[in-house]
């Protein structure tokens, strides 16, 4: 697998920003730092075929998301870190997709009974609402 600096070829562009944002999303989702012995992208790819989201998602986020939304976010993240810059989505596409996933997550968690803690996508990293 190509490492981060090699994938970006040290040329700063909008597409390298998308790549960096994908790495940032992986850090948020996994709770791992990108600067580790094993490249975070390689680590995440090793679990790509797994249907068990808990192997990638930070355990502190347990129960804070639906598996459907997390799978879609991980798929978006994989597209962001594609080694071929031309195959990465635009940042506006990334933003629209995250908004769609967020709205989906809200609609899926809004059906919970009143008083049940609900968490919107990513907010578990900061706080839960009760």
From TrEMBL:
It comes from the Eukaryota. Its main location: membrane. Pfam families: PK_Tyr_Ser-Thr. It is found in: Cell membrane. Residues 9-97 form the Serine-threonine/tyrosine-protein kinase catalytic domain. Keywords: ATP-binding, Kinase, Membrane, Nucleotide-binding, Serine/threonine-protein kinase, Transferase, Transmembrane, Transmembrane helix. The keyword Transmembrane helix applies. Its EC number is 2.7.11.1. This is non-specific serine/threonine protein kinase.
